[in-house]
Specification:
The structure is a single chain. The protein is built from 10 helices and 10 strands. The longest helix has 24 residues. A hairpin with a 2-residue loop joins strand 5 and strand 6. The strands form 3 sheets. It has a 5-stranded mixed β-sheet. Helix 1 packs across helix 2, helix 3 packs across helix 5 and helix 8 crosses helix 9. It has 2 domains: 174 residues, Lambda Exonuclease, Chain A (Alpha-Beta Complex), CATH 3.90.320.10; 65 residues, no CATH class. By secondary structure, the protein is an alpha/beta fold.
């Protein structure tokens, strides 16, 4: 298959962040598609490490010494003078600098961030055009860069489950192979905390995690196909659902972690 740089205008490609909505409910998926549901915007971390807009700091102050608001003639001029920049407040700039420094100080992180950056790949499955734009693609691996509240392995696992990170990585690996754009086998996540001390942890997804992610996105694709064929987009449940609470055998910490 041919790898192209833009969506064919007559056939917008399905992205994982859209497909993941049907895991919430078909109703959520349809609402997201109808409202556009744009992909998450690039962050300062991505711009610096993966290439993108340069970073500039908006540190103008009012006469009283407070941070100047992002409006008015001074703000308009500053934006006009920096059309190619990602404009950050001093606190945002300091946060970005801390995360970037942490990642750059981690040899394993920098090793798996070597490769082709943010290149879209297209493929077809179940008669549908699909798309993935993985952060880094190399011959043997793919890598996604994440800012997170905690890169503690015991906690980040829950983020992977909550946000479907393993599903996205399996989606991307399979898509690259089906697109004829390579055959990487390993999937890494570089997770850096967004507050001091900005700890960076490099994760390699296990075969089990990727297999679970693969089964998850394939189930969602089948559910989407069924909803489209029937033109039925239900919510969470179409019947009365019993409401219970965890039993004594479930630790409170486990409940809090899953919340």
């Amino acid at each position: 298959m041919t790898v192209v740089d833009i969506d064919p205008p007559e056939l917008p490609a399905l992205r994982f962040h859209q497909l993941r909505r049907i895991g919430q409910s078909p109703a959520h998926y349809r609402a997201a598609i109808e409202t556009g549901d744009p992909a998450p915007a690039g962050t300062a971390l991505h711009s610096t490490l993966l290439g993108g807009k340069r970073l500039v700091k908006w540190d103008r102050q009012t006469e009283s010494g407070k941070s100047a608001p992002r409006n008015g003639q001074h703000w308009d001029k500053f934006r006009a003078d920096n059309p190619d920049a990602l404009i950050l407040t001093p606190s945002e700039y300091a946060e970005a600098a801390g995360m970037v420094a942490s990642v750059r100080a981690c040899p394993e992180a920098m090793r798996v961030l070597e490769g082709v950056k943010e290149q879209p790949v297209y493929w077809d499955v179940l008669g549908r055009r699909c798309r993935a734009t993985v952060d880094v693609r190399a011959d043997q691996y793919i890598t996604d860069l994440k800012s997170t509240k905690s890169s503690d392995p015991r906690k980040f696992m829950w983020d992977s489950l909550r946000y479907g990170y393993n599903g996205y990585m399996a989606w991307s690996l399979d898509g690259i192979v089906m697109a004829g754009a390579g055959a990487p086998e390993a999937a890494f996540i570089v997770a850096v905390e967004n507050s001091a001390p900005f700890v960076t942890t490099v994760f390699r997804l296990t075969d089990r995690a990727l297999d679970m992610g693969r089964r998850m996105y394939r189930l969602w694709l089948e559910r989407l196909q069924t909803c489209e064929e029937s033109d039925a987009w239900p919510g969470y449940s179409q019947c009365v659902v019993p409401l219970d609470v965890p039993g004594d055998d479930v630790e409170v910490a486990e409940v809090e972690e899953a919340a």
